Amino acid sequence: MQNDLYRIDGVFGDGNLYSSANDLLKWTEAWKREFLKANNNLMEAFQPTVLNNGKLSNYGFGFQIDTLNIQYSHTGSWVGFYNYMATNLKSKETIILLTNNSNPSASRAIQQWFNHKTVEFQKSTLITNVRIIDGTGLPERKGSLRIKGNKIVEMGLLNPYIGEEVIDGQDNILAPGFIDTHSHHEGRLEENLEAIPVLSQGITTICIGQDGFSQPMDSLKSRYAQHKPAINLLSYTGHASLRIKQMGLRGLFRTASDKEVEGMKMDLENELKKGSFGISTGLEYEEGFFSNKNEVISLAQIAAKYKARYMSHIRSEDIQIENAIDEIIHIGAQVNLPVQISHIKIAQKSKWGNAPQIIQQLQAARQKGVKISADIYPYTYWQSTLRVLFPNRDYDNPAAAEFAVNQLFDPSESILLRFAPNKDYVGKTISQIAELRKSTDAETLQRLVADASLFEENNPDYSGSIEGIMGKAMSEEDLKTFLSWPFTNVCSDGGFTGHPRGRGAFPKIISNYVRNQPLLTLPTAIYKMTGLCAENLGLTDRGILASGNFADMVLFNPAKIQDKATITQPQALSEGILQVWVNGISVYKDGKSTHQYPGIVITRN
Ligand SMILES: [Zn+2]
Question: Is ipTM > 0.90 here?
Fold first, then answer.
């Protein structure tokens, strides 16, 4: 017996007795004999206690009752170790376990024994010799990280346990898996569950349901329960999708009636209960454009009721951008919920250079307490429909087409990505198509929009999008100003096909804005791709390397990480990501899938 009680550790009364397994066994045999005699006083130790509130507690005056009259147990612990003593009166077995593992793992092992299953302790893995950048913005520190199951359990200067799996990180950077707050990769994920374009960027979680379009949580959950992906997903609920359900696909070009808004509110509420992270709007698109402020606000109020969020592809990224930003600030202020501007940009030539004023507008709102933030992808060209080039929806107006080619995009650098009416145009710039047609850029733009709507009318059952364009429209200076704002996180806005951002956005932040033309420090860049993303989405247990958090991680060499996708080669995969873990499982290594699929649909707590 030995006394190691410290008065300052706040534990009194226990911890004072050391015993051996043999002694504990003798003691157990002794109480079992008494138990069988049914000594009345002693039996109180083996019966449930009635609490003052009348409820039964399964802890008697001395034992944890696992199964009444059959199985009893008790634990004891002190700093650094833990024991578990369990007796089954029916099978006449007693187990006395001393462990430096956790309580749940000891209890699990004992249950496995009593149920005649193989006793298995969960194994841990130690990743050593890494430079840890934890996603909070703090500088790197050398050390190791231990994972067990799907969680990080320890970080610091750690030594391997006997027999533990050890991965030598070879002095590379270990960071939280990147979180893409605005992704369209879900579009082809089901056929590409190994998600190479996503993992080769170091992304472990994508946020879908963007720009106002989403699918019901139930179908999302059941789809990925059947076909598990390598990456995690979470979803917002799309405003346009709510509108379509209430108003029909052809009935969207007006404000919604009170009854329809009530229907949308109910549908949104159901989705939030099923784990949606909030509401997303795409107010620049026709499916959302005709909604009025009240409709959007009443839906945002539902999101606020559930402590969820509002995310928006705002009403204008060009001629009305200032008003569109006022609108989202107003929603954040009036409804008092966090609001996020999706893929922030200025897509109008005469307004290039105005990013500092917009940041001022956002800062002023933050100072008044509006929780506003933004995401951004690191490219000066967008991808969308030709129709957004007519912000006043006056597709027949030659002056509007003229304005578009002069102000809203550069026709000589903007490529048609899809065009169902004439596949020969795909891959060509608007200027090249104009040349083929022996016409001007403006006339060509107008003609293309008209041909696309005619095609849509004649082919009402055509599935997939009829047209799409990659529009060169932003300035590098504005991009840098927005990216530097402390509340802007990184997103891709990308998919499996189309714009190079779908395969290069995250590595490009490091190769371009940390290495080639230093704008951000590496820890800040990582914070903008991890911790800040989690914060802006309301994710609490990912995005930062810390014990207790999910083990979503990326190992890379900061000197070699490089995006390869370009406008002419949008399919080229990024390089330099060495290994990626999702929920504690290695999913990507040396440029290849490990064919493990631990990804889940994350739901809001
Ligand atoms: Zn968008």
Answer: yes
